[in-house]
DNA sequence: CTGAAAGCGCTTACAG
DNA sequence: CTGAAAGCGCTTACAG
């Protein structure tokens, strides 16, 4: 734009370069078709005028909004991964020349109306879904309408396959690896600390399943406790019941970082040393993980890889597929694992 | 859209209603101009076809993108307020019929190029700025180009006024109120715990200023300590130096919730009881505040009010103005204040 | 290789 | 109150 706020248009570039408007359009969209000499001439004009095509005009002509829709979760702060995920997603989408439109919507089937509006207004070309829940209605709804989307997270369908394409982190695998690592380090009472089911959160169950299966495989006891809320306090109470047992665990695998920090506080209150007397692990590698003394051993979700995959799936066309990515265990002093 | 993915257009609505296209446009944009009878007829057609105007076509005609740009902070997770803020902002903007486009940009003056692109492409009508830093270059740059924007946060200009319109939370006022409340409750050694300056963060200094001024006014000593990092561990170490003093404080005002939680952990480690032996306060009312046992007394930033103001300022036209909003003290057991 | 034509789906004055 | 006209700023076949 010029300093007076007037936007530069194709027409002005064409005039300055002494060519027609579609020649300018061609150097932008199909440069190989235009003579190198005029190409240079046009590029010079574009440069000198600081021209950039209008997104709206281009969108109208191409019938592509150039925008991907992403619904912000209803409970901000529910997951500490939300923020890094959104950041990585924005960058991944920008890398393909599109941009991210965020919106809010009611939970459940009611929220579908917002998706419908966005589609009807042709405000977005596709959606990225996250914060998926068991039996999430969005996937089937979008798929049946032929709207492109990619999902971070599974819908854990009771039966049949999940509609559309998804990518997720293998929580079960990561927790199993944690158990193996703890066992190799000499632990044989490895407890799990999760959330008490308010809502069915598939990821939480998945993590627990990984822990449980590996304990069974190794012939270890299955001690578990559940926090009443997603809080340090809830986790501390749950950890207390574990530690008060006749045969208390020597390691606790928590389903999330916040829970793990709560466990650590309870461990410390008992004058026990995390990473020595009791080993503690979390999940997410959130800002809390580097916040506790010595750091928290946790599972990092590969944000860049997740979002790059998501963007790739967006353009994969209709169909069903799933990608399971490995979480990476980050060892810190709360559970000094040898990796 | 119809089930086959074909979008409904104005033309189809006009045909079905038996009127011209601009009559349809009129019932949408200037209903008072059209006869009630035909208005009904058109509305019925719109309803039955599930018509919604194309955002792009409308944008091209009105020269309004209908989109507001918002740059995601470079360091996700830096502030626990990011997530609630973004959520509230999205809702506030949607309430005015527009939507939010999020983007990423390099820090500092280099990031201006991204803003310039968005403007040149006419991808957004205006910007919301947050995560402002001392001497933030964006405000002056946008103002000088006549690009509408509103800022959450001040740029703390050394001299002169801040360009454009801003809203901020009165951190100094909230901390002064905290000091008054603690003093009324009988405390006369009220320490401050902040961050050791890595980058100049105006808000942090503002909070400290409020604490300091009020301590002076009340004739209280000014004890302060600083965490080396924004972590519980850093805060715990800083708190230790405070508590090891010959005249240790009986209350600690921390500049953020994460710091406060670190203070609490240090307090507990010393077998002291938060809210009894030592009172502790935080700032942000983040998810951590309800996460520690008994809860953390903290200052809530009024997200809905902030974002509603931001949206209002966006449409206030060029000029300079500032709105300072009060933070609300939320009293919990870490510092059971009488409010 | 280049340009005249048509069109994307709306809105905005402006006649009737 | 209603409709014919022009235009928003691009792109996409399609002649030349």
Description:
The structure is a homodimer of 339-residue chains. With 339 residues, the first copy, chain A, is of the alpha/beta class. Chain A folds into three domains: 44 residues, Orthogonal Bundle (434 Repressor (Amino-terminal Domain)); 123 residues, Rossmann fold (3-Layer(aba) Sandwich); 132 residues, Rossmann fold, CATH 3.40.50.2300. Helix content of chain A is 41%, strand content 15%. The first copy, chain A, contains twelve helices and twelve strands. In chain A, the strands form three sheets. The first copy, chain A, has a six-stranded parallel beta sheet, sandwiched between helices. A four-stranded parallel beta sheet of chain A has the order 7-6-8-9, sandwiched between helices. In chain A, strand 8, helix 11 and strand 9 form a beta-alpha-beta unit. In chain A, helix 1 packs across helix 2, helix 1 crosses helix 3 and helix 5 crosses helix 12. Chain A is elongated and about 85 Å long. In chain A, 50% of the residues are buried. The model of chain A has no long low-confidence stretch (mean pLDDT 92). Chain A binds a DNA duplex (16 and 16 nucleotides) through helix 2 and helix 4.
């Amino acid at each position: 734009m010029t300093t007076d706020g007037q936007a530069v248009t194709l027409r002005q570039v064409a005039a300055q370069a002494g060519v027609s408007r579609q020649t300018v359009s061609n150097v932008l969209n199909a440069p190989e078709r235009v003579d190198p000499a005029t190409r240079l001439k046009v590029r010079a004009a574009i440069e000198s005028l600081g021209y950039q095509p209008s997104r709206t005009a281009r969108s109208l002509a191409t019938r592509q909004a150039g925008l991907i829709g992403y619904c912000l979760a209803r409970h901000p702060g529910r997951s500490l991964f939300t923020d890094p995920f959104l950041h990585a997603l924005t960058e991944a989408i920008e890398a393909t020349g599109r941009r991210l439109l965020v919106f809010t919507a009611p939970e459940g089937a009611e929220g579908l109306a917002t998706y419908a509006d966005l589609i009807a207004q042709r405000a977005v070309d596709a959606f990225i879904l996250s914060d998926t829940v068991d039996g999430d209605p969005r996937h089937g709804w979008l798929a049946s309408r032929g709207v492109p989307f990619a999902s971070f997270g599974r819908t854990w369908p009771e039966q049949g396959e999940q509609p559309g394409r998804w990518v997720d982190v293998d929580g079960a695998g990561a927790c199993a690896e944690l158990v193996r690592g703890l066992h190799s380090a000499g632990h044989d009472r490895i407890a799990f600390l999760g959330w008490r089911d308010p809502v069915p959160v598939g990821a939480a169950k998945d993590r627990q399943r990984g822990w449980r299966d590996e304990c069974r495989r190794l012939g270890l006891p299955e001690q578990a406790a559940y926090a009443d809320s997603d809080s340090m306090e809830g986790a501390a109470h749950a950890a207390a019941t574990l530690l008060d047992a006749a045969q208390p665990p020597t390691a606790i695998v928590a389903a999330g970082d916040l829970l793990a920090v709560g466990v650590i506080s309870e461990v410390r209150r008992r004058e026990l040393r995390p990473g020595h007397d009791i080993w503690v692990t979390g999940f997410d590698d959130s800002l809390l993980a580097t916040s506790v003394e010595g750091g928290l051993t946790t599972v990092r979700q590969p944000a860049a890889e997740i979002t790059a995959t998501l963007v790739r799936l967006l353009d994969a066309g209709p169909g069903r597929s799933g990608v399971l990515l490995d979480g990476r265990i980050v060892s810190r002093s709360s559970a000094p694992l040898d990796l």
